[in-house]
Amino acid sequence: MKQPLTTEQKVIRAAAVLGSIITFIGASFGVALAIQSGLLGPVGRAVGALLFALILLGIGVRIDIRHGAQPGVTALYATSFLVVLADLAYMTHSQHWLSPTGLNVAALAVWIAFLGMAIWRKNMWLVLCMCIAFLFFAGPIFDHSVANALLPMFYPPLALVCTWIIPSTTTPRLAVATRLLTAAMLIRQLILLSFVTWFQNDLGSVPLVAYVGVFLLIIGDRYFPIRQLSLNTRNFTSIYAPAAVILTSYTVIWWVSPWVPVVVTLAATTLIGVLRFRARDPEQAAHGDVCLSAWLGILPFTFVPVIIDAGATAERRTLPETISVVVFLVVFAAVLVLMRFRAAHKVPLLTAWSVALFFAIHNWIPSTIFSSLARYASAYDLAVGLALIAFLGFAASQFRLWRSLKPAVRNLFAAAGLLFSVVGIVTASTAIGELVSPNCYSKGSSTPEIGLDSACAGPQGFQVGFFVGHMIVSISWMALAAWLIVKRPRPGADPKAARVAGLVIAICATAKLVLFDMASLSGIPRVITFVVCGLLLIAVAVLGEQRNGDSAGRKDVASGSLPANGNAVPNPYDDSATQEGVDPFPNVSSQPAFADAPQPPERRNPGTENPEPRISVAVSRGPEPAPEQKSPQGPFPEHGDMANEKTKTATEHGQAAGNGTPAAREASGRDIAGPEADPR
């Protein structure tokens, strides 16, 4: 990092600047004194000033070669440059030895010579001083020569190229300041040219040189970056300064065509995307994404002046206005595709383009709200409406883009899309109605004060189209809301997001029905709108209830056993069943039909190998050892009255245990099963 200047160094630099200015003033006083005393004639004054400038330049070069660059050397160079410029101005304006064109050519030659000196001695301070002097000296000459206005425009680009060649590692801030100063020079030239264009409008090629500076700023930041500074500082030379030049160019280029800034901005954005594509340097790649996002955000607002200018002086829509809106929508669609594959700042970009889209279609919004303003609908309105509908459909299909956004942000853009859809659908429907059945307003009266009712008997074509358009919008909104509420969420998605969005859209559609459609629509369209929307809401209620029932059934099946007789069987592994007084292992001995069915596994206490006490009569299968003999049927004897009595007693105890408390079931299980079943 560069060390800060000491107090002594600051004093030396200030002395150099003051010395240069004082020397220049002293030389001017000397020339004036020679004129007053008659010692020097016009030629002597001009030649003497030129010799004085060369002497200062020679002294500076000698010191620079021997002792290196220092503030005093830069002061000598700058003073020599100022003396030469003053000498040229004297020869042109006082003696008229040079024409305005000759002055511009000579000044351009001197500019190139001193820039070469700065490159040779690697002196960025000299370039900065020359740019400052340019702000006070050079400018377009107010005559009817295009060359005299064009030649001064080449000074800033040439100085900008010098910042590429002269190393900026030791003085990065100085290099950034010089580049920004070249942009200020271009802005100054464009402002001065804007005054000239009031008197002569044949300067269409002059602002094009300023656009060369825009591209040089972008290229310089890509291939000759100033890495010692942060990316935010570099944004001034690659984003803010070029954008300011393009904005200022409207003052001059408006007389030629407002499409020129659009083309230049689009070319600059494309250039950034191409130059930064697959950049291997991580710093360049990150800065490239920022630059691309910024220029993509600037691009939509360059369309707004074009659209406003095309429709400013026409009551009806015009072909240029229609073309500008359609081109804007096409470029917007391309930007949506680009945002899917580039790590751009999506939310600011979408916001900028949405705001610009609102301004692009602002002339069609009043006719969407008031049917009386839609009587001049034409094929141009139909083209804009269809283009807007097609664009919204294409934008809605970019699922990968929308899923990358947060749900709240996604819902905001979805709401904006719904509002834009109203303009598109109603505009297209109104235009179709007017084209199918032209209105009879002009036939009934030639004065706008007389309404349609006094001239026409029934509703006109554009009115029917207006009603049908709003009918389609209301039904579409309600259908979309119904689909979002009823549809099953995809795996991994938030199940509440779609329902909340559908509920919000349903509320908006209902509000539109009550607040707008009820008063604005009439006849069959109003009847169809309310009936269909009501049926859609009923369908939502029915289908939603069915889905909730199916979901509840699936939850019961997932949490319990598969019911065999229509009743849900409790889960044998759910302890809540035992706590509620329900036996999870019912006595199946009372159900002969399921005597041979496979039984659930025995429950075991943690840390032991003995099963929990339960009824073992109903679930025992196969031989089991007895105290005296092995029985193939279980622990009970098969013959005699004693066996029948014990079997009957076991059955009664099992039924009682199935209907009693857990303690009773445990006791009955021990009594019936015998001492072998007792874990104790």
UniProtKB/TrEMBL annotation:
This is Predicted membrane protein. Keywords: Membrane, Transmembrane, Transmembrane helix. The chain crosses the membrane at residues 12-36, 42-61, 73-91, 97-117, 124-142, 148-166, 178-199, 205-224, 236-253, 259-278, 290-308, 323-341, 348-365, 377-396, 408-432, 464-485, 497-515, 527-544. Residues 549-680 are annotated as: Disordered. Residues 638-651 have a biased composition (Basic and acidic residues).
